């Protein structure tokens, strides 16, 4: 079983990846174990669209990034190391601090955000 002592630190690092987008997105959850952002109301889809989240789970900390599901071509440039952390089509799970992967995830989030805003709200 992974050491859960690090989970709040991992969560804080993953949440920090999402914080630059607060001015354009809507906070849906903000607790000590979960943080979630939605896009504004989309005329195209007639609802708010989920963008991303960080959440402490029992055995890992998850980072959800919906743009990689919506635009799969974003995944073409990710490293094999980050790909190993994927669970499903839009979730990355971490059991320990991996700053280089968090930096890569931050860049992927920036690319996803730009595409999300451009394609869903233009």
Can you describe this structure?
The chain is an alpha+beta fold and 122 residues long. Helices cover 36% and strands 29% of the residues. It has one domain: Aspartate Aminotransferase, domain 1, CATH 3.90.1150. The chain is built from four helices and six strands. The chain has a six-stranded antiparallel beta sheet with strand order 1-2-3-4-6-5. A hairpin with a 4-residue loop joins β2 and β3. The chain is globular.
Quick recap of the structure?
By secondary structure, this protein is an alpha+beta fold.
Give the helices and strands as they follow along the chain: HEEEEHHEEH
State the shape.
globular
Strand content: 25-35%
Kindly identify the CATH topology.
Aspartate Aminotransferase, domain 1
SSE diagram, text form:
Layout: H1 7-18, E1 26-30, E2 34-42, E3 47-56, E4 61-65, H2 66-70, H3 80-83, E5 86-87, E6 91-94, H4 99-121
Antiparallel strand pairs: 1-2, 2-3, 3-4, 4-6, 5-6
Helix pairs in contact: 1-4
Which features does this protein show?
alpha+beta; six-stranded antiparallel β-sheet; 6 strands; Aspartate Aminotransferase, domain 1; 29% strand
